[in-house]
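Data card: per-record layout.
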Amino acid sequence: RTSKTSPTGPRSMEPRPRVESSGALNDVYVKSQEHLLRPTSENPLPTSVPPPSAGMAGLIGVRHVLIVIGLPERGKCFIAQRLSKYLYFFHGAEVKLFDVAEYMGCQPVDIGHAAQPQDECRIEASANTLTRDLKLFLNSSGEAARRAGGNMTVPVPRNCQTAQARAAERAMAAAREEIQNTEQHLLVDEADRRRKNVDSGKVAIIFTSDGMGSFYEKWACTSKERRRWAAETIQSDKRLGAKVIFIEVIVNSAKLMEQNLLSKIRHERRLSRGAEARESRDSRQSREGEENARGIAVPSSPATPGRPTRASSSRNHGYGSGYDWSAAAAEALEESDDIPPRLVREFHARVNRFARVYVSLQEDGSEDDLSYIKLINYGDKVVTNRMHGYLRMRIAQFLSVIHPTPHVIYLTRHGQSTYNQLGKIGGNSPLSPAGEEYARRLGAWVMPYVCYQQAAGLDSLTKTRLWTSSLQRTILTAQHIPHPIISEEDLGTPSVPPEPDADDALANGDSPTRCSAGRSSGLRGTPPRASGLRERLRSGGLSGVVGGVALGGIDSDSDRGGGGDRDRVWQQMAPRVYRNLDEIFAGECEGMTYEEIQHSFPSEAKMRATDKIGFRYPRGESYLDILARLDPLVHELESYHEPLLLVSHQAVLRLLYSYLMGKPRHQAPKVEIPLHTVIRITYDGWNPPYEERFVLGPTAKGIRNDGTIDEGVLEDGQTNL
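The structure for this 721-residue chain is written out next.
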């Protein structure tokens, strides 16, 4: 079984289309509260809209325009897209991306050449078009904004048919007689600035996917004059009530630039090979049709690939002036990860042309009246100016942790618990026999498949991390994962796949099955290097923790040590326990089956069926409550450079999976997170997130209802949790 999942297709991370990354929420409150907002005989004038709750408040109506600037190949597109996803998913804001390159229209002005009069006219027209679209977005008032301001509108009598509604209407009429100025139905006009802090807020993010070609565009803000023009254009329109923030991405680390260039080349090469494969397939199918029509046999082998062709784009995915970057990339990385010096020189020459005319945000006092963030080396240093207010500080905090280098996240549920067998939700139950078997298989699987990552075409030892919730079923699931102490000399050591039966830890169980095609070579066995680490653990030659038993060495809470030898060692899979990762708290429904909930709380069961993401269990939690406690963890997760294995629960993993894969959050409660399966999600600044699923088992076919391993049926009581 093979499948690869990408949220928007193989080229989804190309920031070329000018698309809205998120829309306004359908409601400004959860549907399960709707019945409380209708007039009754006891409450003829109810609250039209409740106060904002976590995840539904958005940015409390504040409108912001974020302009991302900087030299080429600094990950500006990635930062703009990641920030938009975060503000929408965790804060409920309405976010729209504006790509300056999409407004240029015709051939851009090359850097170093003076703009001609016709170019000036075209630049002015494109700036006016973007300004118009920007104001339309910021001024638009959708249904959600109208409903958010419902408390500022006096209800108008309606013809009602039911006896209860007629009684409520009579009570409302009596109450209105005591209200002065009854003809004033709208207390605050929709155009009044007092209403701007009512809806979920709007955020416009302006960036360019073609730094070279769009240099002279006004909204590219590559000079002090252009930045001043952009700020005055927004601030001069008082009806917008919008605030402008400039975000400058500065990378002066040679190592980071090499990583960015390497990722970009790989991305372009994949696009080129994909385009060539499609062209070759189409050409072959056309040739087969012609040959078959003439009765000539056609060989079954495909044509030998030639030199990759340039991807079809007038600006070639962020490189202006017609530079054939994908062709150069095809020559660059055929067999290794080393970038040819010629390619590096060409890249720096092009960037230097840009840098000679680009003006960074000035700290000499001339731009101190602007709000801006200088993001230096992706959070190594952050300079802020006039960043006051909730949103501005949240943006600065999030930008200080994200980076475009590769992220590798492993998500897995705990093994089957005893409550799973009984169909009960919540609780703190231990593992069933099948869950214990999965814990053993996971412990044997982690070292070869997580601690070793591909580098230079080989699987090399790398630093890794481990998170669990505070509930015992996740801690028990991770109990067999080894935590060896490795030295800097061990890192990057390549391994060679052993014979098929080398991993004796999985010999007694089902072989893990990969459910997605990440690499065509299939599953790997345990590398000899991993076995060597285990031998060193057994012999006492290496400190660490195995099966929860400390063998000595550094503190498991220390990431990199505090000095001396600790600076040169790392504890693999050092377990961290977070209560933020605990399962959704079902309140009075804890320990009940869904049949028992239907019987004891029929109205709550009905509301939950209609509003799964917003429904809050009696005295318990909702999915939106989980979002609030996951927010700080996502900041930490985004900051990691090491692969992370996260053992948690279905409701929590549904939200994390949807955020990482860029799915709408209202679809999160429907995402399937099966038991005894590891989901691997990978993404970076130039490649869309994609997932691979590894079924370690025991699978449903081999488990009885009582949790013992046999030919039975796996009853997963929390499938609908």
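Known properties of this structure: The radius of gyration is 29 Å. The longest strand covers residues 242-250.

See the next section for split statistics.
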